[in-house]
Structure formats: structure tokens, C-alpha cells
Amino acid sequence: MKVMVTGVGGYIGSTLAELLLQQGAEVVGLDRFFFGIDKIHDLVANPGFTPLRKDVRDVETSDFEGLDAVCDLAALSNDPSGDLDPETTVAVNHKGRERVAQKAKEAGVKRYILASSCSVYGQGKTTNLDETSEPHPITTYAKANLAAERSVLPLTGAGFTATVLRQATVYGLSRRMRFDLAINLMTLNAVEKAKIFVLGGGRQWRPIVHVRDTARAFLAVLNADPCQVSGETFNVGQQNTQILSLAYIVRENIPFPIELQVVPDDPDKRDYNVSFDKFAARLSYRPQQTPADGVREIYEALKHGTISPDPTTYTVSWYRKINEAQRLLDSVMLNGRLL
Predict the structure, then answer these.
(1) Which helix (H) or strand (E) holds 100?
(2) pLDDT value at position 272?
């Protein structure tokens, strides 16, 4: 199988590319590489991997010729990032992914998988939300995800299988590490400050999933009979946990005393509890990692210095730095020259 992974330089995309290569697939990794191509240097060195530096808004039919499948993960990632630049978020996360699906179909690609998010449920009206529940997206990021779903699923047919995976909040180690995700950030604060900060009282629900498990979900869809996944939407996750419970899990898996600080308010109003039964029943999918596993592996990596926080590990602040750098360059540019 020859598979394109868009967003291959990202948190999930780089993990998925690794698993695909381990299974013997050829991988074309498309990305802008906002966070640096050096983070996936081992993938680039693999003879089965071909990097393609390109923006999803600019892809053409020729970029997809000879491919069997596309796993579309390229996006301006997470809810706060979407609100930083709403216009660009819609252009990339909705229109860009719509373009990827259209051009892939034109090129004769058979399978397309869209990486969406459980954040489309926003403020869930009930618990155990399933794929038939009405979405209530409350951020630009979530609204763009939902719009992308509604653009790509109707392309199903004429030998083209489109599938949507609504992913839970992800955690765990990755080449392009992120410390702006709940479990990852709590673990970092525990290690660096011996404190965990719990916003909004901690009673809000989040569905969670390990980064390798959500990558495995893409493999499950790629290997499934098309009739099982064609035109389908699946929630992908391991469990639903309240934020305060996550904090306790982190504290219990760090081998020194940790202080919990609960802050009563939080600008993030998302609160949703999601069912993963459909995906489990349809594809016999079972996550293999637990939150405790994620905490321990991040702790060990921090302890041994194999990972460390840097500007690229905080998505929103990194995007902000890129925008600030562009404004600075524009302000000193004269007649097309910097110097």
C-alpha cells in the first residue's frame, strides 16, 4: 500500500507514518513543516518515506497519482489555535481538506480518512454522545472540522471510500511533542513545578486517547473492508474522564509529592462525554495504552532528557511567533529585499 499522510510533521501524523512504515507501506509525507522537518529526521531517512513540502491549499491532482490512500491530518491544530486566526483556520481545516479529498478522488485514490475531532460536540447536551448525536461546536476549530466532514463524506462513491475519525483529546509521546494537551501539560508541570493546575473546577468531561492508539485507528480503517467504513463517521478514543481525575492520575504516577491547585474558572467551556462503541464493534478496535502509561513515558523521557519543552511544543504560541516574525519581516522589507 502507498499512503499519503498530510500533516506528517505533526503530533499524530508523525506517529502514524512510523506505524505505516513498520507495516511495510510506502509513505508520502505532505506537510508545511511549521515545526521543522528535523523532528522527523528518522522517518525521512527511511527508504520507504518520501517527504513532500506543500500546503494542502495548493495540492493538485498530480500530487495523488499512484496512491492507494490518504490519511488527512493537516490542520491548524486545536481549539485555541483556531481562534488565533479564524480565517486561516477555515481556509486550511475546511477548504484545504475538502481540496485534498477532491483531488485525491480525481487521481483515482480509493481511500480517504479525515482526522476530525470530538470537539465538534462542544458543550454536550447529554453523556455518552454517539455519532448520531447533534454536534454543538463552539470554537472556530470545531466548526471547521464539522464543515470538513460535511464536505468530504458526500464524495463517497464511484470507487472512493471516505471515512471520518472524530478523535478524542490525545496524549503521550511523539516526535513532534506537544505540551499544550491536558495530560502532557499536567505531567510537565508536575515534573518542573511539582504542581498541577486544574482549571474550571475540573468537573468538565474529556474523551481521551493515546497518540499511538489514535494512529492505530487509521490503520484499522485502512485495513477494513470498504463496506464497513465507507461514508462512515466514528468516534475514536479510550475513555471519558473528568479533568480533575486526570490530575489525580498524573499525581499518582509521578514518584514525588505533587500539589494540586484547582482554579474555579476556565475560558474553555468544552464539556463532552463520548461513546466509542460503534468503532469498537465495527472494527474490533481496542486501545492498548492508558493515561498512566502516557504519564510514565513522558516522565521518563523528561527525566532522561530525550524530550524537553521548547517553543514548538506549544502550538498556539508557536503560530503566534510565526505571525509576529512575518509582520517583522514585512515591516523591514524594501523593494523585495531584507538587506
Answers:
(1) helix 97-106
(2) 85
pLDDT for the residue numbered 29: 98
Bridge partners of 31? 53
Q: Which of 205, 209, 319, 197 has its CA nearest to residue 264?
A: 197
* β-strand pairing of 205-210 with 239-242: antiparallel
Please give the single-letter amino acid code of residue 202: G
Three-class DSSP category at 308: coil
Let me know: does 169 contact 209? Beta carbons within 8 Å.
yes
CATH of domain 2-176+210-237+268-288: 3.40.50.720
Instruction: Indicate whether 62 pLDDT > 80.
Output: yes
Overall residue count recorded for the chain in this entry: 339
Quickly count: other Cβ atoms within 10 Å of residue 84's Cβ.
18
Are the C-beta atoms of residues 141 and 82 closer than 8 Å to each other?
Answer: yes
Grid coordinates of 293: 502509561
List own/partner pairs for 33-39 with CB under 8 A and 24 or more apart: 33/9, 34/9, 34/318, 34/319, 34/322, 35/9, 35/10, 35/176, 35/312, 35/318, 36/9, 36/312, 37/9, 39/9, 39/14, 39/175, 39/176, 39/312
Q: In the structure grid, which three cell numbers stand for residue 305, read together?
A: 532528557
For every residue of 292-307, DSSP letters joined together read HHHHHHHHHHHHHTS-
For the beta carbon of residue 337, count every other beta carbon within 10 angstroms. 7
Cα(268)–Cα(46) distance, integer angstroms: 40
Strand partners, 117: 167
Specify the higher pLDDT residue, 272 or 275. 275
Instruction: Specify which residues 162 forms β-bridges with.
Output: 112
Between β-strands 233-236 and 195-198, what pairing exists: parallel, antiparallel or unpaired? unpaired
Written as one letter, the residue type at 164 is V
∠ CA 212-308-6, nearest 5°, is: 40
Show the 3-state SS of 176-233.
CCCCCCHHHHHHHHHHHHCEEEEHHHHCCEEEEEEHHHHHHHHHHHHHCCHHHHCCCE
Specify the DSSP class assigned to residue 58. Answer: G
pLDDT score at 63: 98
